Amino acid sequence: MKSKVYILYTGGTFGMKNTGGNGLQPSTWEEIIDYLPAIKNQTFFHYFSEINFTFETLEPVIDSSDITPQIWEGIAHKVQENYKSHDGFIILHGTDTLAYTASALSFIFQNLTKPVVLTGAQLPIFHPRTDGIVNLSNAIYIAGYKSFDLACIPEVCICFNDDVLRGNRAVKTSTNDFEGFSSPNFENLANLEQQILVNKHLLCHSSTQEEFSLKTKFSDSVVNVTVFPGYNPRHLIELVKSKKIEGIVLKTFGAGNLPTSKSWHELISECESTNTLILATTQCPNGKIELGQYESSMVLKNTIVIDGKDITSEAALTKLMWVIGNFNIPERRSILSQNLRGEIT
Ligand code: ASP
Description:
It is built from 10 helices and 18 strands. The protein is an alpha/beta fold. Helix 4 crosses helix 5, helix 5 packs parallel to helix 9 and helix 9 runs antiparallel to helix 10. The strands form 5 sheets. An 8-stranded mixed β-sheet has the order 4-1-5-7-8-9-12-13, with helices on both faces. It has a 4-stranded parallel β-sheet with strand order 15-16-17-18, sandwiched between helices. The chain binds aspartic acid (ASP). The site of aspartic acid has 11 residues, from loops.
């Protein structure tokens, strides 16, 4: 069956060149296809003759270090505009913040029933050893699943090297390796080996019949605090008192542990009186927090602190920003505690 795939190019190493010795910068889609005769003459995409492609560029193309919530909103609107007319979506994006964008989009999209596949490259498409072609080809299989008799992955996912990862479970784990991403606390949604295997039992399906829609607001009144040996939260308390922030991701040691300090109680009560959310997570790439397992995490247990369980840093931060952006104070804690898109176990 023929499928329709929408490809949005946003920049990133995938399409970068070092022009003028100023370091790598993104090229236009026209330059990319000019360089790649296989794409220009449609032979690359002819290989996928079972698919109708639509290409668009999100202007201006960027190094993904410049991604913002406004750009997430722009990407989401492009998907929404093309939602009914396409079967799957590919977002070509820089790798540095790919996991943030994937998490953010997973929260933005309500009642998603089609694949939204993010991919990029560690080596530009202009390089003879680029991984961009393989990554794009693999993403086309996942987004154009109908043409290949594959199961639909109705989620925001990252397709990189031979892995398909749930977007809000993924982290960039290498600046160099072609296997640039991993999903430390959740199995791959699919593996692209000689055969393509989709792990259907892991997929999240929208639980309602409601139409696809967006919730696109993100608050920037949040901080991401990584505790370290000797850390005392006194500066954080001042910040909370000043009411300049509405949420904190607190990256604890191990399973939720903190250096001993009376100030934690003060922090929690200041947060309570100013309606500032605290989402506790672990600094460890692997595993989850368990408040109360050690005496040194007791201070957080049975308080207003939200247990982030095994959430990634990227998903924790984007979820906090999104919840504050879209919901009123009385509902925020409960929504933040829920597993919304498979981001926590
Ligand atoms: N700095 C680049 C970016 O994120 C890195 C990459 O794409 O691999 O846009």
